[in-house]
Specification:
about 260 residues; alpha/beta; eight-stranded parallel beta barrel; about 15% strand; globular; amino-acid biosynthesis; decarboxylase; RibuloseP-bd_barrel; lyase; Aldolase_TIM
Length: about 260
């Protein structure tokens, strides 16, 4: 069983537990539930930088990236740096995140927030909306075509945008449907953790133009972005590169200025 499979097994258990404690009616009563969402896809289409900056404390491949920042410091730094949107990891066991992080981010900034999570159930989409997210991530590697369809439709009905993440041609071909807004190519193989920009380059032409193309993971330089832009990529998700510094906002500002 690879790390991704393990995460999904744990996630399904976690969702069952949460459902038993917090009823849907409580999520729907959140002050954010009726709030109009902010479009990341529009921001990316109209941006020169296309940076989606990430709040991430740790990952399965890096035991610790940064526990020194408060969420507020990081996201405010990203907003003032000119990021198009912010990805907030909410998985606790493997990434050290929480829904509380998403809530604090929403209270701190007014740019699109992605709930970065391993979504396997509609309940998690309700949680995302209740905690101030503007969009969700769906990972093709762990979902069937039917699940992608029902989860993306559910998200769209709540006014959330959908970023679908793929790793290869097979995942992309099974996933293309009108209820997606953005298609992200993860340059990290989630099974081996090997990173290569070639994943983004190989899949670029296969992604229809109505979807905003996003390249994720392993982007640590301005050169990498300039290399990917001719392939039609408008969004670039950057996590560790900013978080591993002693000032994520400053690192993002300097990076975006270079761009």
């Amino acid at each position: 069983m690879n790390i991704l499979d393990k995460i999904i097994v744990d996630k399904k258990r976690e969702v069952i537990l949460k459902k038993s404690i917090i009823p849907v009616s409580q999520l729907e009563a959140s002050v954010f539930f009726g709030k109009k969402t902010i479009s990341l896809s529009n921001n990316l289409r109209n941006s020169n930088s296309g940076i989606i900056a990430e709040h991430k404390r740790r990952s399965p491949s890096k035991a610790e990236i940064n526990y020194g920042f408060t969420v507020e410091e990081v996201v405010k730094g990203y907003e003032s740096a000119g990021a198009c949107g912010i990805s907030v990891l909410t998985d606790g066991k493997y990434f050290g995140g929480s829904l509380e992080d998403l809530l604090l981010a929403r209270a701190s900034v007014n740019i699109p927030l992605l709930r970065k999570e391993f979504i396997v159930d509609e309940y998690q989409i309700l949680e995302a909306k209740a905690h101030g997210a503007d969009l969700i991530l769906l990972i093709a590697a762990v979902l069937t075509r039917e699940e992608i369809k029902s989860l993306s439709e559910f998200a769209k009905n709540l006014g959330l945008e959908v970023l679908l993440e793929v790793h290869n041609q097979e995942e992309l071909e099974k996933s293309i449907m009108p209820t997606l807004d953005m298609i992200g190519v993860n340059n990290r193989n989630l099974k081996t953790f090997e990173v290569s920009l070639d994943f983004s380059k190989q899949l670029a032409d296969m992604i229809p133009n109505e979807f905003v193309k996003v390249s994720e993971s392993g982007i640590s330089s301005v050169d990498a972005i300039n290399e990917l832009k001719p392939y039609g990529y408008k969004g670039f998700l950057i996590g560790e590169n900013f978080m591993k510094t002693d000032n994520a906002g400053k690192a993002a500002t300097e990076f975006i200025e270079k761009l």
